[in-house]
Amino acid sequence: EKQVVEEQAIEEQAVEEQVIEEQVVEEQVIEERVIEERVVEEQVTEEQIPEERVVEKESEDADWDENKEGSLELAKKKQAELKTYYDEFPSIDDIIDETRFGIREAKEFTESILHDLPSGEISERTTACHILKSLLESRNTSCLFFDSTHGGNLHDASGHLAELNLEDRPFVLKLSSSEGLGDSMGQKTEHGTIRFVQALNKTIEQEQYHSVIEDILGRLSKAHGIEKQYICVKIVFAGTFSVVYTVNDLANYAVKSLSTVAQKLKDQFQQYLGAKIHPLLFRPAFDISFFDKQGNKTFTNPNQTHQVGPPEKTKTYISPDGWTRYGLKVLGKYQDGNAWLHPFRDPGNWYRAFHGTGRVKAVDFGNDNQSFEEQYAPVDAVASIFESGFRPARKIAHGNGVYCSPNPKFPENGYVATVELDTQKGKKKFKCMLQVAVNPDTVRFTMDKDIWVAPNPQDIRPYGVLIKEV
């Protein structure tokens, strides 16, 4: 018996060593791919600025007119923020690779978590996993769970939970330059590229014609095999030349074609470097270790408030009484440090708010022919819109962006998703919303004190999942 036990232990150790070895190989492959992409981008940059163009570059850089073109520093900062946000999206090649290390393990791990009924106790992590799975299933989306502390190495989508209600989840097309698109000859300097993308974005915002955008739409139409009217270019940004676009109301169709779309994009765009998709577009994966015990808390004080934000312009943070929070591991996640969240009441703290997880449909706005994102209030906390029948005028009044509320009771009044679960103690219903931090430099305050708007997804960061038993 001792020999049998010993042999089993040796076999288990051998299997574990093999798994670790496979993981190391996979990490090396990923690292090599990242290095290759970086080398390609550096080569592109070098090709864009040959020696004979140095004089021209210096001339163009010196020619930046801040009175007419705005702050150069702010322009560069915005481009860097966009690049950082969208570069975190997973590549299509990685998403569709079912043989990639970690996929099979994640499927087995997910099955082990969800196989048994949850206890129904809010304080237990498995209950939160079942609730998250049910929320995604209500949006016709499946998910995977993995554990990075035990070798899991998939793209963690938890940082994008605040975008759960956004129907238009974008693709990102990375090109080495705009050369050959429309009448563009390509830009040879950094400042020239910034000018160019600013001009393109202005025409996109004003819905004006531009030969480059029209050419891009035509090529995207051929790559996805659908008409141009169903494709919407949202924004372009520098750092090579990248195009953010959506396939309107056709997410499921687009997902089914992922296995071939990357090659078709490469065929259509001579300057192709790669393609990425929104982490929630196709089978998002969540690192079960993203729950951070340091941030776990049950709120029991109904009158607890704090002043949070930059000095001289703080806002009141109201604790969500009666809710249990699962903290998310976000410290060290962003390049700008941790002051936006920690330590609490630091002068660099972002405002605290709450984001509903319910859902409305495009047709609720009375005109489902427009692009969904243009008329969709991403957060169900917008009570004034809901009570008025989702009139477009109400939505326009608050503008595009991600909606949230500084008042935890506001989204709870019918605008927070309710999930029913079979538990070991019978059927139970739970409410769920997100606790978020909002950028004080960009947030828009509406006429309704309970409605805030973050203009861009990168201006709102989830740091806790709030759950309450109904």
Written description of the protein model:
This protein is an alpha+beta fold. Among the domains are: 107 residues, no CATH class; 178 residues, no CATH class. 36% of the residues lie in helices and 21% in strands. The protein contains 14 helices and 17 strands. Strands 7, 10, 11, 13, 14 and 17 form a six-stranded antiparallel sheet that branches. Strand 13 and strand 14 form a beta hairpin. The termini are far apart. The relative contact order is 0.12.
Give the arrangement of secondary structure elements.
Blueprint: H1 2-48, H2 54-62, H3 66-69, H4 72-87, H5 92-96, H6 103-114, H7 125-137, E1 144-146, E2 171-175, H8 190-205, H9 211-224, E3 231-238, E4 241-247, H10 251-256, H11 258-268, E5 272-277, E6 285-287, E7 291-298, E8 305-308, E9 315-318, E10 324-328, E11 351-356, H12 372-375, H13 383-387, H14 392-398, E12 402-404, E13 417-423, E14 426-438, E15 444-445, E16 452-454, E17 460-469
Parallel strand pairs: 1-6
Antiparallel strand pairs: 2-4, 2-5, 3-4, 7-10, 8-9, 10-17, 11-14, 12-16, 13-14, 14-17, 15-16
Helix pairs in contact: 9-11
Tell me which oligomeric state these chains represent.
single chain
Distance between the termini: 53 Å
Number of strands: 17
Which stretches are poorly predicted, pLDDT < 50 over at least 5 residues?
49-58, 359-396
Give me the number of helical elements.
Answer: 14
